[in-house]
Amino acid sequence: MTVHLGALSRSRRATKRPLLDVVAEVLLAQPGASLAEVAEFAGISRTTLHKHYATRDELVRAVGQRATEIWEQAVDRVADEPGTKAGLRQLLAAMIESGPQLTFLWRNPALDEDNELTRRYIDVENRCLAVLDRARKEGVLAATTPDWWLLQTLYALVYTAAESIQFGKLAPLDAPDLALSTLLNGLGAPATGAGSGKPDKGESE
Amino acid sequence: MTVHLGALSRSRRATKRPLLDVVAEVLLAQPGASLAEVAEFAGISRTTLHKHYATRDELVRAVGQRATEIWEQAVDRVADEPGTKAGLRQLLAAMIESGPQLTFLWRNPALDEDNELTRRYIDVENRCLAVLDRARKEGVLAATTPDWWLLQTLYALVYTAAESIQFGKLAPLDAPDLALSTLLNGLGAPATGAGSGKPDKGESE
DNA sequence: ACCGAGGTGAACAGTCATGTTCGGAACGGT
DNA sequence: ACCGTTCCGAACATGACTGTTCACCTCGGT
Predict the structure, then answer these.
(1) For the whole model, what pTM was predicted?
(2) Are residues B47 and B120 in the same domain?
(3) Which of A8, A23, B21, B156 sits at a 20 to 30 Å CA gap from B145?
(4) HTH tetR-type domain spans which residues (chains A, B) (predicted)?
(5) Cα(A67)–Cα(A99) distance, integer angstroms
């Protein structure tokens, strides 16, 4: 039951990107892909793949580890930023850029089995939250939003933006701004006469 | 390689809910679950499961069909609503309620193979969009947001809310309002002082 | 008491992914 | 020219899941 991996197939193959990145994408598009398929799309033989990662489980965990690593670096890059809109924008940009890896991480409950990975996950999530908290204290984010909802919404927007980019609907350079604006202001009609200048028709509830 | 389905297992088992609903949840938590596992969590024998749906593919497609059906009904229920906040709230409520089914639908690229299902999917998505469009014309939603971003954001919020409910973080009755508020206003700090104006501290970007 | 519908457990053949082994090719360094 | 490393293709044993069959049970209706 080979489901086509469509757009992925030819373009990415045989390029010299980090192996685990390719694996993450394949396994994301086709969670049930066989190791033979994964190897093919990575441009190596199944034997070689097995030599690097003895079992499928080991491979999946390696991808998870790398995804976490990438996330950690993304958060680190904005750790010193003040809690401003610009800081948030940078966090979003960094996370959206790593969209596939993060999505892989978020979508694989099986990774929870790995204790060290779970520890690092919780850790980086907390650091992520710390950034958001700073923005909250700066008055950029609403003070009343619960932590978990803030985080989940952030994840959701990162995921959506990354997916839109992959589908070609969204220009990579537009993504951070769009996501940030949606996160902060939502998609409701701007308040009439408000700061962002949009003289509109009357309020309409 | 049995990964535990944790919270799902005992509580739901053997209850008399529609079979396909249980299947959707199991297959969502554990996409690689064997039919034996699926049957067990549905509280029936594998033989019986096979009698209803001859092959795994057929089962998956049936779940997809049902998910689409549920979505159609949810949209139908608000099709006559005017494009007000209340109307949007109802759409969100209906969709969040069907969270697991919709998530299953959104996450299974394999379902695209089914032409009829794809047709119905596109159709209900368009009707969904029509509801949003009406809200846009009423000035509830920003006029400038592209259709696809609006839809994707809606999906993201529905998914996030449903997941939060499943994790016990969010009370089902609170979900629609939280999602609606996030969709319309985002999570930024509310405008200070005036009703909707924004005489704020220095802009930070 | 009979009967049919729907459910069950046991068993079986077929298929496929997995993990492993091995002989050999290619390549770079010495 | 030699050697170690790395990759490769082929082949194999194993195990898991699948789909199917069959004999049996257990109800509810007649």
Answers:
(1) 0.87
(2) no
(3) A8
(4) 13-71
(5) 10
